[in-house]
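TASK: fixed-backbone design
INPUT:
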């Protein structure tokens, strides 16, 4: 039997851990404390998840109260009042008509794919294909991974599903050229493409590189012209993280379907959602309803009560607007760090979702450990958690603290990053 002890990713097989990780004992706000008593600033909200920070007293109270009432019923038999409340709140906050609750970002993307397929089946004109972008990440289930232009595809062998052919929109290529290539692809396969999938900012793969201005508006126009659906993967960008409820709002574009995840449960519960426009909802709701199969834990009473409380707080505290203000401060500070540290070669992002591109110290061999991972380790030693990208295309790190971070804490974050950069450069 093959041994899995050598698994490179420390979290891959939990009883055969390859590398020792610090053990977290407690967390509060932006602070994490390990079993040795060391403190860390959560500079990336886990993996751009903990929008409200950790152990928020109101959310902890909701968890306690809901756990004492009811935690699970199968949604085939029962609903819960929080489920309806959450669905309405999500719909109002995003302007999307229908809400389908699942448990992870990957499941939300899978549901988005299935809704798009079902939409065309209901119209009596099935369409089998999807287009997505090179250098993107959409999740770790087979359909979502097939959409992704991410290094993990290579681990599993290039996947057989006919996805992922659009050119890289994050490369700085002129928008007109990019859109001409999308048009050519749609013309090559008339009536075949069910959906065009995109990340508003390439998160896990590139480190917060936004789509170029004009591209998304162009995609919307092409989707309308060719009768295909526009599918936004807002798993990382949604729910206030970039300063809007949906990052697509920055470009004034409405998707037909949007996938949400991470910030919906904000680290308090696994929950995610696929949202659909009125047009898609009408078609699939009046049809065969094949999506109704769903997932066992989808929309369970505990998760929906928690997510509803998270969303209510996000809206009441105006965290999307706050993200814009704090993000401006953070981006200025990161640019100042870039002036001091030649290792930082680019700073970009939006709201409280920022990425830095990192150059290797001069003369270093390409075989050396990825610089993003080295900076992550140095930052950890200095009491700061950052998120290195995993796409394998460049070396970048994501800085995306909880939206509740204070000014003082932002300053601590920047000071600790400064110290880590100095260490790696020396
Ligand atoms: N889409 C995007 C844009 C993501 O960043 C991620 C997670 N990094 C996913 C989908 C998958 O989400 P999950 O890990 O919750 O399945």
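OUTPUT:
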């Amino acid at each position: 039997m093959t041994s899995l002890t050598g698994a490179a990713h420390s979290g891959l097989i939990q009883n055969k851990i390859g590398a020792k990780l610090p053990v977290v004992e407690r967390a509060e706000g932006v602070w994490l404390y390990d079993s040795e008593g060391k403190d860390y600033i959560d500079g990336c909200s886990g993996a751009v998840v903990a929008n409200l920070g950790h152990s928020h007293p109101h959310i902890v109270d909701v968890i306690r109260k809901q756990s004492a009432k009811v935690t699970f019923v199968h949604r085939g038999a029962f609903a819960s009042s929080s489920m309806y409340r959450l669905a309405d709140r999500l719909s109002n906050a995003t302007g999307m008509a229908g809400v389908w609750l699942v448990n992870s970002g990957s499941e939300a993307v899978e549901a988005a794919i299935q809704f798009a397929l079902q939409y065309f089946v209901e119209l009596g004109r099935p369409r089998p294909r999807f287009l997505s972008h090179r250098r993107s990440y959409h999740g770790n289930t087979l359909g979502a991974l097939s959409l992704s232009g991410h290094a993990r595809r290579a681990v599993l062998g290039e996947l057989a599903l006919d996805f992922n052919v659009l050119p890289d929109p994050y490369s700085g290529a002129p928008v007109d050229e990019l859109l001409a290539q999308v048009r050519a692809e749609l013309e090559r396969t008339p009536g075949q493409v069910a959906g065009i999938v995109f990340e508003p900012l390439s998160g896990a793969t590139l480190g917060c590189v936004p789509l170029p201005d004009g591209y998304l508006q162009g995609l919307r126009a092409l989707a309308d012209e060719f009768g295909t659906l526009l599918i936004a993967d807002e798993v990382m960008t949604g729910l206030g993280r970039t300063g809007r409820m949906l990052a697509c709002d920055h470009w004034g574009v409405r998707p037909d379907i949007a996938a949400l995840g991470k910030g919906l449960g904000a680290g308090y519960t696994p929950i995610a959602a696929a949202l659909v426009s009125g047009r898609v909802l009408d078609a699939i709701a009046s049809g065969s309803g094949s999506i109704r199969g769903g997932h066992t834990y989808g929309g369970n009473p505990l998760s929906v009560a928690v997510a509803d409380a998270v969303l209510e707080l996000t809206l009441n505290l105006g965290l999307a607007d706050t993200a814009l203000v704090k993000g401006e401060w953070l981006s200025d500070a990161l640019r100042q760090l870039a002036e001091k540290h030649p290792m930082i070669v680019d700073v970009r992002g939006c709201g409280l979702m920022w990425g830095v591109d990192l150059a290797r110290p001069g003369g270093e061999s390409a075989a050396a450990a990825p610089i993003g991972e080295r900076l992550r380790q140095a930052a950890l030693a200095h009491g700061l958690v950052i998120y290195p990208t995993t796409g394998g295309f460049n070396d970048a790190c994501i800085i995306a603290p909880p939206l509740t971070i204070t000014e003082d804490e932002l300053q601590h974050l920047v000071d600790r990053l400064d110290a880590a950069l100095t260490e790696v450069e020396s």
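COMMENT: The longest strand covers residues 344-350.
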